[in-house]
Amino acid sequence: MLKVDTSKISSQQIEAFQRDGVICVRNVLDNIWIKRMQTAVDKNVSVPGPLEVKGIPRAEGSVEHTSSLWLTDADFRALAFESPLAMLAALVLKSQKLNFLTDGFFVKKPKQNSRVGWHNDLPYWPIEGWQCCKIWLALDSVNQENGRLEYIKASHRWGKELREGANPSWFVEPEPHEILSWDMEPGDCLVHHFLTIHHSVTNISSTQRRAVVTNWVGDDVTYYHRPKAWPFIPLEEIDLPEFNSFKAKKPGDPIDCDMFPRVKYR
Ligand SMILES: O=C(O)CCC(=O)C(=O)O
C-alpha cells in the first residue's frame, strides 16, 4: 500500500475540511499514477460501464460519466485499494475504519454546454452519517475555462440535501455566499464533504477535462434507504453477485458489504 505523503496534508487542511467542507490537496498522485489513470479513463470513455452492462443506464450528455469501474478494471481497482487516496480520505475524515463506496470518472467534452448544476452528494447515496467525502482527482489542468468545480463555503454545515435541478425554496443562487474554487494540475485532489453544495462550470476551452472520483465513508456511517439513490434502479432488477449482501441491508446496518468494501489504508 502506498502511503500519502503526510507532509502534503497538514492538520490545518484537515481542520479546513471540517470548517469549509472542501479542501484542495496538491500533488497527491505522482506522474506514474496520473498517466495510468489518464489511460484508464481514455480506455473506458464511451464504453458501457460494469453496471450499465447489467441494465443500469448512463445519462447521456456533454459530460461522460461512468461509475463502479473498480469491479472490472484493474487500474481503477488499484486506485481504490493501493493508491494514497484511501489514506487521504481516512485522515480528512478522522476515521479509524474506512469503506469505499464507488469510483467514477467525469470527462467534460470541449466547447459544449457541460455545466453540472448545484447539488450535494449525500442524497445520491444510501447512507446516513457525517464521515463521508468524495475525492475529485484532476487528470488535466483545470481552470475556469474548462470546467472547474465551485463550492459554497461551509454549506455542509447547513445540513440540507440538494439534488441537481431541484430548486427548493431554501436554496438561493450563490451570490450571497462565499465561493471556494481552485485552479488545479494533474495529480491535485479536491476533497469535499458529501453535504457541501457545489457545481462545475461549462467547458468553453478546446480540450477535454478529465477527472476521476472516489467516494469514502468512515466510522459513523450506516446504511439508510433512499429511493432515488445509488444504484438508481430497483435492487430486484440487479443480477450481480456483488449486490447480494447490499440487498439484505436494513436502515442502521453497518455499511460493510461486497459493494462497499472496507479498505486497509495503514
Ligand atoms: O466533474 C464534474 O464536473 C462534476 C463532478 C461533481 O459534481 C461530483 O462529482 O459531484
Blueprint (SSEs and pairs):
Layout: H1 11-20, E1 22-25, H2 31-44, H3 50-53, E2 63-67, H4 74-82, H5 85-93, E3 99-108, E4 116-119, E5 127-128, E6 132-138, E7 149-152, E8 179-180, E9 189-193, E10 198-200, E11 209-217, E12 222-223, H6 244-247
The chain binds 2-oxoglutaric acid (AKG).
Residues 106, 108, 116, 121, 134, 147, 198, 200, 211, 213 line the site of 2-oxoglutaric acid.
Structure description:
The chain is an alpha+beta fold. It is 19% helix and 21% strand. It has one domain: q2cbj1_9rhob like domain (Jelly Rolls), CATH 2.60.120. The protein is globular and about 45 Å long. Bound molecules: 2-oxoglutaric acid. 2-oxoglutaric acid binds next to strand 3, strand 10 and strand 11.
CATH domain topology: Jelly Rolls
CATH superfamily: q2cbj1_9rhob like domain
Beta-strand percentage range:
15-25%
The SSE string, one letter per element, is HEHHEHHEEEEEEEEEEH
* Weakly predicted, low-confidence segments: none
Q: State the distance separating the first and last CA atoms.
A: 8 Å
Question: Which hetero ligands occur in this complex?
Answer: 2-oxoglutaric acid
Strand order of the largest sheet: 1-9-6-11-3-2
Query: Helical residue percent?
Result: 10-25%
User: Mean pLDDT, as a whole number?
Assistant: 92
Radius of gyration: 17 Å
SSE-based structural type = alpha+beta
Tell the overall outline: globular
Tally of individual domains: 1
CATH architecture: Sandwich
How many β-strand runs?
12
The number of helices is 6
Query: Could you give a short account of the major beta sheet?
Result: 6 strands, antiparallel
CATH top level assignment: Mainly Beta
